[in-house]
């Protein structure tokens, strides 16, 4: 009969377990009503364990929101990495990228998280700072990198790829909040596509090489 070495049995990452338990509780209850006791029970750990990993409810909330943002951004990062750099396909691919990024931002989870971040940042500005560092910065870095590659390929003029990335994201979303009434109104896909396409066209008028 085989003897199992307890030390070799994979143990769940307690930090991961706590974050997974905290996210829905903070989402349902908000920061004020959510209790560390409830999160500890859901995670199957003791309250002191939570404090040993996160120090307190404030930091647990910050880490939970940032972790949720990172997970939601995984699809956006994948879309950015698929941007076509070829001479034939880069324009259409850039338009498709804009549409896919807006779609990522319009999922129910993304909209809910954005509202929570906006609401709680007034109480604790560190919430947004952590989300920006852990979730937004990787998106911006990846997008800036791909735009720089389009520049190196001779398709775009982007002396400052990071600024160009900010401009691209701002332009593709410029009409979306008004069209969707901040995510509360259903809008035909064609109207979203037109709005995003107009944003990409404006970006290209500023950054495409004249011969392009």
UniProtKB/TrEMBL annotation:
This is Regulatory protein TetR. Residues 12-72 form the HTH tetR-type domain. One of its GO terms (molecular function) is DNA-binding transcription factor activity. PANTHER family: HTH-TYPE TRANSCRIPTIONAL DUAL REGULATOR CECR, HTH-TYPE TRANSCRIPTIONAL REGULATOR RUTR. Signal peptide: none annotated. The lineage of its organism: Bacteria, Bacillati, Actinomycetota, Actinomycetes, Frankiales. It comes from the Bacteria. The keyword DNA-binding applies. The keyword Nucleus does not apply. PROSITE patterns: HTH_TETR_1, HTH_TETR_2. GO terms for biological process: negative regulation of DNA-templated transcription. Keywords: DNA-binding, Transcription, Transcription regulation. Residues 35-54 bind DNA.
């Amino acid at each position: 009969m085989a003897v199992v070495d307890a030390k070799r049995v994979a143990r769940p990452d307690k930090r991961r377990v706590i974050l997974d338990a905290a996210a829905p509780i903070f989402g349902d209850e908000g920061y004020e009503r959510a209790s560390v006791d409830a999160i500890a029970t859901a995670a199957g750990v003791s309250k002191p364990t939570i404090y040993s990993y996160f120090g307190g409810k404030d930091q647990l909330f910050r880490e939970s929101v940032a972790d949720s943002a990172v997970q939601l951004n995984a699809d956006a990062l994948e879309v950015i990495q698929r941007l076509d750099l070829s001479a034939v396909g880069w324009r259409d691919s850039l338009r498709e990228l804009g549409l896919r990024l807006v779609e990522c931002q319009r999922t129910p989870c993304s909209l809910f998280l954005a509202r929570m971040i906006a609401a709680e940042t007034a109480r604790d500005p560190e919430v947004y700072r952590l989300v920006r560092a852990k979730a937004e910065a990787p998106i911006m870095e990846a997008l800036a990198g791909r735009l720089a590659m389009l520049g190196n390929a001779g398709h775009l003029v982007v002396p400052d790829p990071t600024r160009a990335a900010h401009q691209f994201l701002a332009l593709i979303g410029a009409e979306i909040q008004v069209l969707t009434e901040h995510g509360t109104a259903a809008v035909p896909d064609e109207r979203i596509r037109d709005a995003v396409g107009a944003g990409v066209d404006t970006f290209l008028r500023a950054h495409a090489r004249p011969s392009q």
